[in-house]
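Input set for joint prediction.
Command: fold jointly, output tokens.
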Amino acid sequence: MKKVFAVLFLVMFSVSCAWASEPIKVGQIAAVTGDFAAYGVAEVESVKIAVEEINAASGVLGRPLEIIMYDCRTRQEDVVNAARRLVDQDKVSAVIGPNGSGLCIAAAPIFNRGKVPQIGTLPTNPLVTVEESGKVRPYSFRICFLDPYQGAIMAQFAAINLRAKKAALLYDVSSDYSQGQREFFIKSFEETGGKIINDEGFRGEDVDFRSQLTNMKDSDAEVLIFPFMGKSLPLAVKQARELGIEIPIVGGDGYGDFMWEICGETLRNTYWVTHVDRYDPALKTFFDKYQEKTGTECQEFVNAVLAYDCVYWLKDAIERAGSVEPEKIREALEQTKGLKLMHCTLTMDEFHNPEGKEGVVLRCDPEERKSLFFTKIKPE
Amino acid sequence: MQFTISTLFQQIINGLSLGSVYALIAVGYSLVYSILLFSNFAHGGFLVVGGYACYYLLTQWGYGVVISMTGALLASGITAVLTEFSAYKPIRERTPITLYLLIASMGVNIIIENLFVVTVGGRVKALPQNTFPTGVFNLAGGVTMSASDIISLVTAVVFLGLLQLFLSKTRWGLAIRAAACDIRTAGLMGINVAFLISLVFFVAGILAAVGGIFLSVRYSLYPQLGSITTKAFIAAVIGGLGSLPGAVVGSLILGLAEMLTAGFISSQMRDLVVYSLLVIMLLIRPAGFFGKKINDKI
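tokens >
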């Protein structure tokens, strides 16, 4: 009899041990292939690094984190499928990613219906966390600032730092991200007394922008505004310079170091509003680690840094919630205040957006072949 | 919208340069169509193979431009022949219905695209900056032409000229023309049809590789690059599927139509106009400008 008890005790002990160390399942959706592939790969790698660090240091609530990653192929259909799998089959506690606004907006109804909190890494459109009616989406969060914010920074930078009065704008008609930035750029730029003298669109998969750029060339614009991302961005810069357009180009956070490979020195005189200063000393350890783990330099650094910080934000929320229940995590995320992360101090506003973040403006230096810190701007 | 002569010239140059790239691809389509009477949608895949082969020969193995380009042409040519052997030939031997070939070619295209996604990743690549001459030439009145425009125009002309010579002056060219008229009779006249078909695929593969290299120079390289061939296909249809001069004319018309629409009407209307052009063409002249016979266009 004693023996039986001993065995039973052992079994129970080992089972409870197993429970205690059962991993916390966290979903990740990233665009590992398709148009945003470069950004998505960087996110996957940096999330891995953060999770390894956290698990090496006793995990969260004494349990390791386990990432379940799905590739959304930069397509809204695939995002929806990935979100369904994470919510219905994998039953994760929370989800990190995807990065694009269109992708997050497509997935939002599924997470909000399934009541699983989701943190977008780099979706900057307002509708990511707020429905069109103005109601906050309770389970949608983001770590980055918004297009109005970004559009306003671009407008302020063009009007004040570059002293431009007339701007020409090229944007992607098929992208929420691009539409949002365009709209808010125009609004803010016109508020400063500036004029948009050329407003041209293209469609997402286009690779040739020369006819639009030719029209801009013949206008007397003082600055070109490129609020879009992906491979269109370097191609548009290169084609603009090839057409002999030499005025400054200002763009948003679509900038990535991969653009140098395509553009080379045609990136001269371009400025990019972004979230993170690449050469901030606080980030050096992370970038070194990234290089060591992946064997490549971290080119899409904004995505990498924000995705990395998402993991630590989630860790903090789970710890404050004291639970892995999605509902409790959601509440904790909403109440985030003054959380010190690697790239910023994070406070959530009532619309699930970070409050009062500064935008960084980078300037491309063709001699060093990199983008250097130019100035910081906080829109009024 | 202000209208100046220099803008018009610039848009025409833009259109011709885009059209010349379409032409290289469209001719490959038309060549295969003229013999086998089906649209080989795997052509986009061959193009991607050529682009990546050139990229890796240049960057990983450090070969010069000439060797890398030759290697890329061979790689695409061989891929095309292998595709013919492994996918199309078995189907052709079983059924005369070309629709199956069309579907198989779409499958091959997706397979090639995804092979690259899986092996080299989806990241956008660019051929090294110093591979081809870069620079911008200022023509009169502020009109500019980039070195890559000139190179792609010249290459398109050279390769299409070579193809024309091959088809009109050589015995195998004659055989291909005979097969284009009637492949069964050509076979009965003693032409080795199996070899002929491989040869056609090889030539089409080479043209695809040239297109692929130029697309990667102008627009960068990524696994979905082949999707641009949809436009080349439309150009081939407008010109008359199966007709090589038709493919060239159709491509130039399409390139000009795209650029002029985007420049003078509205950039958002570009694809609307292009696809409307296709529909109108099919309504008025189903065989295109130069197509001889009206077949099922699949």
